[in-house]
Amino acid sequence: MGVGGESPLSLGKPDGKVSEPALPGGGEWYSAFTDELQAAVDGVNAGTSPRVISSELAVDALAVCYAEAESIAEGRAISLD
Question: What is the pTM of this model?
Answer without folding.
Answer: 0.46
